[in-house]
Write a structure and sequence with these properties.
Layout (H helix, E strand, L loop, with lengths): L7 E4 L35 E4 L7 E4 L1 E5 L4 E7 L19 H11 L3 H15 L18 E7 L5 E7 L8 E6 L5 E2 L18 E3 L5 H6 L10 H5 L8 H16 L21 E2 L7 H8 L46 E6 L6 H4 L1 E6 L8 E4 L7 H4 L11 H12 L3 H9 L1
Antiparallel strand pairs: 1-2, 3-4, 5-6, 6-7, 7-8, 8-10, 9-11, 12-13, 13-14
């Protein structure tokens, strides 16, 4: 799409805690228009940034997913030692959340390194806030930062971390290129460690990346700078290292079992335990990732379909907010509260219109099916867009999968097998 000289790009605060609708606009796809027969009003932008001459089309689902030239982005919310607030909150100093940053990157870039630099520069200038920034009297450090994995058709993949800067404003960010034969997992925690900023082909960061940590005493200039150790938020509880660590171990063990990694060491912010990435033992496919997303530690010591908590029908679902219990349930990869999951595929040997594919599943991954959405598509079947969670709709694929999940968990041992087949 081409834009006139001097045009401005509206930026919205559509953080996930806003509920439905996140925002209503006539400036984007039909999914953001006011619902027919409703009293929905157009959302007021949080602010504006200068528009560029032309932008790419892209698929959006809470965060930007994939654009028409195959640039692909996946997201993971992280914990950090800083917190920022949007401009529409008292004393809020920041314009951009990861939702909007990811969309802007897809609008403006065809390479992963362009996406990293674009998001980093805009966040430095306009400020970054975590999408869970709410109560300023109780800062939400546990969801105040973000990580993205960004891939392109040139077969480059970058890991991007970002948090709010000093005085609850601005941004601090770092990025590292993933090796061509490597597999990584970002399980709701920073994972980038030492930065070699003399190697700009593989490492990028904001100019203030280490200064704020030194000023706060979170890192020492006498030691190699460890980004995760410096900025990761770590309130220790006995089970905390396993919340992220078990998922990291499981993914690595699924693709590289030859490494025999320890499942119980956990992920520790201050001390590296698992590697940033591993080389898979065999070639991976999109199906490999779908299997990981559908996993609840089957056939391991931590299999959620086994034990007393699984009940007589071997149900792996575990729900939060249990009272008067010590410890925690395992945090599996496929969980009951999942709304959707995506596997993003780029194919440089094909034309853009069909080379990029977003494999999209609605609901619990273990109980769902992944559908291919081409990055060159301009429309989706209506059934994919009808997903009001407070109103059952038999014409909605999202509700179809929720309905299937509800039935499956009545006799999981018998019914779930039929779903997977």
């Amino acid at each position: 799409m081409n834009h006139s000289a001097g045009a401005q790009r509206a930026v919205y605060n559509d953080a996930l805690h806003h509920g439905y609708p996140r925002f209503v606009s006539t400036e984007r796809g039909p999914g953001y228009l006011p619902l027919n027969g409703s009293n929905q009003t157009i959302t007021t932008p949080l602010g504006y940034i200068p528009q560029v001459n032309s932008t790419y089309a892209y698929w959006d689902g809470d965060y930007g997913m994939q654009n028409e030239v195959q640039l692909s982005i996946a997201e993971s919310t992280c914990a950090a030692r800083t917190v920022g607030y949007p401009l529409d909150m008292p004393n809020g100093r920041n314009l951009l959340s990861i939702n909007e940053l990811s969309r802007i990157a897809l609008e403006r870039c065809d390479t992963s390194v362009c996406a990293v630099k674009t998001m980093g520069a805009l966040a430095e200038e306009y400020g970054f806030y975590g999408e869970y920034s709410r109560d300023q009297t109780k800062p939400g450090y546990g969801g105040s930062s973000e990580a993205l994995i960004i891939g392109d058709k040139y077969q480059h993949v970058w890991i991007f971390h970002i948090l709010t800067g000093a005085h609850n404003a601005g941004a601090i960010w770092a990025a590292q290129r993933l090796g061509d034969d490597q597999f990584t997992i970002v399980p709701n925690t920073f994972v980038i460690r030492t930065l070699n900023l003399t190697d700009s082909a593989n490492y990028l960061a904001s100019p203030n990346v280490s200064a704020h940590a030194y000023a706060q005493g979170w890192a020492s200039p006498e030691e190699p700078f460890d980004f995760t150790s410096a900025y990761g938020y770590d309130v220790y509880t006995p089970n905390k290292p396993l919340y992220s660590g078990r998922r990291m171990w499981r993914g690595y063990d699924m693709v590289a079992p030859s490494l025999h990694l320890d499942p119980d060491v956990g992920f520790h912010v201050r001390v590296p335990t698992y590697p940033l990435s591993v080389k898979p033992d065999t070639l991976m496919t999109p199906t490999s990732i779908m299997q990981y997303f559908s996993d609840y530690y089957q056939n391991t010591t931590y299999d959620l379909a086994k034990g007393v908590a699984a009940g007589p029908f071997h149900d792996p679902a575990r729900f939060g907010h249990a009272h008067r219990l010590d410890g925690n349930w395992e945090r599996s990869i496929s969980i009951a509260r999942t709304t959707h999951s995506i596997v993003l595929q780029t194919r440089p040997n094909m034309a853009d219109a069909i080379g990029g594919v977003a494999w999209y599943a609605q609901g619990v991954p273990a109980d769902s099916v992944y559908f291919p959405i081409s990055c060159g598509q301009t429309t989706l079947p209506t059934v994919f867009n009808q997903a009001i969670r407070t109103q059952f709709d038999p014409e909605s694929t999202w509700w179809a999968f929720q309905f299937t999940t509800n039935w499956a968990h009545l006799r999981y041992d018998l019914i779930h097998h039929e779903i997977q087949v």
